[in-house]
């Protein structure tokens, strides 16, 4: 797979690897597959009628995007970042996303900023319509699209894993607050970018990330059967 699910809302339904990635991604973010659920190659191979090397390819991509932990001699598990890791990830995001804002201010034109504003509007609409999966996806994608505006591909790649992994935590129904990643806070960042107000843009992004960190919940311990969650989606 060349394109992570975080950036691709419209998927090729005929591609079983993309479909498996999408199904698992959506189930993780919607917390139908909770932290530490084991993803067995045999079960996934049967559910998606796919050879095991294809399953391993999908699991490797999910691991690269921070959504799955691959443990030697044990297998693949839905990621379960601890409190210490969460603290460290948000500290790093503060540094990287400050850079993303600075580069966006330097390189982005008004068309790019309008596109970012449109994304926030779609995020808001998804929330109001109760489309949880789309809303969470767009909330996370906002940060990557902002980073892309600066043209630094390495920065985008570094943020991708952090954004995926922290979104996994703060999208939990047990998270504090009402929204995992607030479109209201995103909108304030966009407003500051449009006004070319560097101080305000940096302050709004720093505040937003602090709020996201505060929404990180304690880890649960539930487990679910893969086929019960993913099998029903096979023909949808």
SSE layout and pairing:
Blueprint: H1 16-29, E1 38-39, H2 41-48, H3 52-64, E2 68-71, E3 75-78, H4 83-107, H5 110-128, H6 132-148, H7 153-170, H8 183-194, H9 198-214, H10 226-230
Antiparallel strand pairs: 1-3, 2-3
Helix pairs in contact: 1-3, 2-3, 4-6, 4-7, 4-9, 5-6, 5-8, 6-7, 8-9
Give a structural overview:
With 236 residues, the chain is mainly alpha-helical. The chain is built from ten helices and three strands; from the N terminus they run αβααββααααααα. The chain has a three-stranded antiparallel β-sheet with strand order 1-3-2. β2 and β3 form a beta hairpin. The chain starts with 15 loop residues before the first helix and ends in a 6-residue tail after the last helix.
Summarize the structure.
With 236 residues, this protein is mainly alpha-helical. It folds into two domains: 5-80 and 220-233, Winged helix-like DNA-binding domain superfamily/Winged helix DNA-binding domain (Arc Repressor Mutant, subunit A); 83-214, Up-down Bundle (Four Helix Bundle (Hemerythrin (Met), subunit A)). The chain has ten helices and three strands.
Core attributes:
about 240 residues, mainly alpha, Arc Repressor Mutant, subunit A, Four Helix Bundle (Hemerythrin (Met), subunit A), three-stranded antiparallel β-sheet, 3 strands, about 65% helix, elongated, disordered N terminus
